[in-house]
Amino acid sequence: MQILPCRAPVGPSIDECAGDLQTFSQFYSPAIQSTMKPASLVSIHGGHSGQFCDHARDTLEKIIRRYIELGFTWVGITEHTPPISDNLLDPGQRKLGFTAESLLEKFADYFVEIRRLKQLYRDRLEIFAAMEIETYSGYRQFVPFLVKTFQPDYFVGSVHFVGDINFDYSEKLYRRAIDSAGSIDNLYLKYFDLQYEMIDLLNPPVVGHFDLIRIFDPDYRSRLLRPDINRKIERNLELIRQKDLILDLNLRALYKGNDEPYISRRILEKVREMEIAVVPGDDSHSVDSVGNHMTTAIELLRDMGFSTEWRKPGPIL
């Protein structure tokens, strides 16, 4: 169909052109339509608090109040799930004297508190009471147990552990994960294999920081292009597309000084071609990181042709 410019016998009025725009807008793609109005502020992954996370700061209520102050429309609060056993505790948790059992109790307290806050602020902010899962030994049974026990609104499927090593905790543990895998290339391959398995088994409504494995790798751009690694990336994206899941555009990398978020632009280009939904997540761990780089994320997605009519996470299947 040919769309002609608005015309009137003696020059168009604003109302006449507005009518034409309303008529023609039905032919625009969602991505083009989304550029016609400001994008709402949302975060699909974040809200870690010092109250319930050993490497975060501030209370959960202060963090939620900050989202309200900044004008967010909805947020998913996605606290980390606890370890299944003491041997999976991270160094910070050990230092503070936590056990797997005590962290499970704290996780139960988290759901009590997030549901209280969800009700308290229901007229000012839509809050999803969610969680971020892990992929250590036993996760196949443990995650369904947590879902059944706590009934989250949704969960984020993330991979922080490869070979039961929490590779993103520190450069030291990243090097240990490389040594365990045999090489950094093998670590990437194992990461994407574990991610594929997790997605296939658990159907997470949201897939978190897709390429987190690059976290301490200065050569990640070239490594992600290596044929064996790239094949696994494309395989995983195809599974995400088939299952109609949402990808988290995770802004924590920018907060920590990196020049692009998780997902890196090369992968994000493939995501756009495959028409997979992407929603920003600030991955906040404190009041001062709430909403970090959100404008950058919105501009990036718009420039690449993504819709900014943000899709909300669906129910857990």
TrEMBL record:
<dbReference type="InterPro" id="IPR010140">
    <property type="entry name" value="Histidinol_P_phosphatase_HisJ"/>
</dbReference>
<dbReference type="Pfam" id="PF02811">
    <property type="entry name" value="PHP"/>
</dbReference>
<dbReference type="GO" id="GO:0005737">
    <property type="term" value="C:cytoplasm"/>
</dbReference>
<keyword id="KW-0378">Hydrolase</keyword>
<protein>
    <recommendedName>
        <fullName>Histidinol-phosphatase</fullName>
        <ecNumber>3.1.3.15</ecNumber>
    </recommendedName>
</protein>
<dbReference type="InterPro" id="IPR016195">
    <property type="entry name" value="Pol/histidinol_Pase-like"/>
</dbReference>
<feature type="domain" description="PHP">
    <location>
        <begin position="48"/>
        <end position="250"/>
    </location>
</feature>
<comment type="pathway">
    <text>Amino-acid biosynthesis; L-histidine biosynthesis; L-histidine from 5-phospho-alpha-D-ribose 1-diphosphate: step 8/9.</text>
</comment>
<keyword id="KW-0028">Amino-acid biosynthesis</keyword>
<dbReference type="InterPro" id="IPR004013">
    <property type="entry name" value="PHP_dom"/>
</dbReference>
<dbReference type="GO" id="GO:0000105">
    <property type="term" value="P:L-histidine biosynthetic process"/>
</dbReference>
<comment type="similarity">
    <text>Belongs to the PHP hydrolase family. HisK subfamily.</text>
</comment>
<dbReference type="GO" id="GO:0004401">
    <property type="term" value="F:histidinol-phosphatase activity"/>
</dbReference>
<keyword id="KW-0368">Histidine biosynthesis</keyword>
